Amino acid sequence: MQPSFDLDGQVALVTGGSSGLGRAMAQALASAGARVVVVARRRGALEESVAQIEAQGGRAAALVADLAEPKAVDDIASQAAKPFGSLTILVNAAGVNLRQPIEEVDQTSWQLTLQLHLGTPFFLSRALVPGMRSKGYGRIINLASLQSQRAFPDSAPYGAGKGGIVQLTRAMAEAWSRHGINVNAIAPGFFPTELTAPVFEDPTSSDQLARRTAIGRNGTMADIAGPTVFLASSAAGYVTGQTLYVDGGFTAK
Question: Which residue intervals define the domain Ketoreductase in the entry (predicted)?
Fold first, then answer.
């Protein structure tokens, strides 16, 4: 039997879909046939994501919301189902890295970072599980990081959140996979996004990181598409609780 990567009939919600990896993952899902709702704070950037998906023949809608606000999670879950119906795919891609020296991290930046990287993915996923369970199909993809297992300077809260999301992915998989809801994480290497702009603005740093990979280059947005579609599809029916490093072999060296 040939595996199916067709997402026709599926409805996806992508947090952080206004830019970077979130936008690229939303485009990949739409290209595979899913109808996609992108959610973030910036309306203009969201509308640009929708326009790009529609220009490629896909269907998409924008939802403006503050993903860092815990009280907004249930409302986001209900509003996201309005354009295309009940959601079967969730990509938790929203994030922030404030890049503060560890001595300068305050309660506000700590809480913001941990909410976006752990609190929102957990509670948003839990809010969508009943709908996925009723359909007998669900795919949740969390965003891990190289910092899920390695420390980088000035990123203690970010690293804590990305370390936690790996274990949260396992816990969610243990709880929900028996209902047809598989939960996995993608851990990207270095891709050119808003979060990594300080790295890519310095050609020396960018080149050094590329040389640390097994492949010899940093990631491009095209590199995230295949893993996203695979984990969202029925082809990944026996894959759950895993973290897939899409890093060009950075962690292999």
Answer: 10-189
Give the active site residues. 158
Separation CA 120–CA 187 (nearest Å): 18
- Secondary structure (DSSP) of 133-149: HHHT-EEEEEE--GGGT
- Which tokens sit at 166? 């790996």
How far, in Å, are 94, 175, 177 from residue 134 at the CA level?
26, 15, 13
Within-domain flag for 118 = yes
Question: How far apart (Å, rounded) are the C-alpha atoms in residues 27 and 118?
Answer: 24
**pLDDT tens column, 115-173:** 999 999 999 999 999 999 999 999 999 999 999 999 999 999 999 999 999 999 999 99
Residue 245 in this model has a pLDDT that exceeds 80:
yes
Q: Within 148-247, where are the H helices?
A: 156-176, 197-200, 203-211, 222-232
At 26, which helix (H) or strand (E)? Answer: helix 20-31
Nearest alpha-carbon partner for 64 in 108, 26, 121, 15: 15
Asked, for residue 2, whether it belongs to a domain, the answer is no
Q: List pLDDT tens digits, range 36-84.
A: 999 999 999 999 999 999 999 999 999 999 999 999 999 999 999 999 9
- What's the CA gap between 144 and 129, in Å, rounded? 20
Closest residue by Cα to residue 160 from 120, 113, 218: 113
In a domain, 6, yes or no: no
Q: What φ, ψ does residue 140 adopt, rounded to 5°?
A: -115, 125
| 3 within some domain | no
* 91 and 15 Cβ atoms separated by less than 8 Å: yes
